Amino acid sequence: GALWIKADLPESRTNRTRYRYIGWLLAQSICNRCSVQAPFPQILFAKLLEGPRFEPTLSSLQDFDPAAASSLENVKRLSAVELSGMLEMEELADMSHDEYIALKVKEYLVDSVEWQAEALLCGWSMGLDGLDIATWLITPADLQEAVCGTSSILDTPLRKLFRVVSDDELLGCQPLQDALWKVLDRMESTKKAQLLMFVTGTERPPLPGTEVLRIEMPFFAPVSYTHLTLPTKRIV
Fold it and tell me: How confident is the model over 196-232, as pLDDT tens digits?
């Protein structure tokens, strides 16, 4: 399941501060190119990206909570009399099926988490300028991938995960290059995570192409063998 805003959390100065910090932390994950590896839904990033302009739809709810969307879809099957009775029971004004569905979607995704989303957006804006993001033409799906990462990213070959820079000595030895990548490309995810921990200090892989991996030879090959001298036996 995805992590979502806690709707029944009481509003307080402390809780507002916590949500601001979460928003700032999500923004910093992009600034530092380090995903949080947490399952936040795409619709959350649509709220952060669009701010007060965010308008939820049944389709967006379907992507986030299929069960809730399916329940609202059933409203369309109600007769006029049944809909009128339900509106009266909920003390709502007369409205159409579509208007009722739009109202409930807004209650679920906007009204019930209004102060939390406001605090989250405030913290997010402390870390990233919304105007800058708009010029980058980034979508909610892009933000979700940048912040949350992807579960299958460890399946990506290291040479595609990083921008690889190799020493000239290694580049000049094709058999050694082939042997090195043959081993690395065949690594299973667990071994690859251990290698990442050893090389970078964390098991979390970066977004593909955002980090440089430098492969250096542990020694320098001699330029000319004429500099080498062999021990000789002295005869007296």
Answer: 888 888 777 777 777 888 888 776 555 544 444 444 4
CA triple 63-67-70, angle to 5 deg: 85
Nearest alpha carbon to residue 166 among 215, 199, 200: 215
Between CA 17 and CA 4 the distance in angstroms is 17
Q: What is the rounded CA–CA span in Å between residue 138 and residue 189? A: 30
Sort 33 into a burial class: Cβ within 10 Å, 0-12 / 13-18 / 19+. Answer: exposed
> Which residue type sits at 24?
W
> Which long-range contacts link 56-61 to residues 24+ away (Cβ below 8 Å)?
56/105, 56/106, 56/108, 56/109, 56/110, 57/102, 57/105, 58/101, 58/102, 58/105, 60/105, 60/109, 61/105, 61/108, 61/109
CA distance 25 to 122: 12
Helix 97-109, helix 66-73: angle, nearest 10: 160
pTM greater than the 0.90 cutoff? no
- Rounded to whole angstroms, how far apart are CA atoms 19 and 12? 11
The tokens describing 133, both together, are: 């993001």
Q: Lowest-confidence range among 55-69, 128-142, 219-233? A: 219-233
